[in-house]
Structure formats: C-alpha cells, structure tokens
Specification:
The protein is mainly alpha-helical. Helices cover about 65% and strands about 5% of the residues.
Length: about 150
Amino acid sequence: MILAVSGMSEINRAIDQTTFSQHVRDALAHLYDRLHLQDHPLVALLGVSAHSAPADALRRTLLDAVEQLCPPAQAPQRDGRWRQYRALRLRYVEGANPAEIAGRLKVSERQARRDHQEGVTAVAGLLWSRRVRLRDARSEGDGARGEGSG
C-alpha cells in the first residue's frame, strides 16, 4: 500500500509501508536527538508538524506507541508480547544497551535482539495504522468541504 502525502515536496508525495517502517526505526534510534527529530519525515507523516515543538511531539508519539504494546495484565509473564514491550521500554525509556536488556529479560542477547526487532515492527504497524486513519480523516474533511462549495 502506498499513501499520498499532501502538502509535502514531490519526492515525499507517496510513501509505502516499508519506507514508513524504516522511518520509524530511524526515529527510535535517534529518539532523544531533538535536531534529528525536528525535521524527520514522521513529523509530517504523523501530523505533528503543527505542534510548537515537533521533535518533542514525535518523541511522545513514539513512546505512546510503545506503551500501547503493553499486554493486558492477565497475559502470562513469559508471553513474547511482554518481552517485546519490556525490551522496548528498557531501550527507549530507560536507555539500556542490548546486553543489559538481555540480562534484565533473562534471555540471550540474540533473543533480546529478536524481541526488540519484533517490538519495533509492532510500533511501526501501530503508527502506520494511525497514519492511514489520519489520511482518511483528512480525505473525508476535504470531501466535506468540496461538497459544500458547489
């Protein structure tokens, strides 16, 4: 699926889910670098460009997406969803490195990397869905304005 991005330069007019996911990975890798996030493609793609501090708004959006991955309390503690969520929280909220994450999760570093990658993929999926809803809402708003101006 390719989404059109209105109001952006020609080079960014359409974005596919793979490219979007790469942007999410990049933004998470630079989560606390305000200069990097300030003009990040996700600022426009996720509709936070109007915010007075777009880098902070993007960071909050990414961290909120991580929190949305928190499994229900009744999910078994060994459930892979818990490991993914904990791996992301440890990395992006607490600033733990991969070895620390593996130790805290009591898994191998390889498993911790897998859990992290799966978690990042899940965050990208959540944000892609948000992007689709945002695009659809804007399209509906444009359609409603077009109908009344006849």
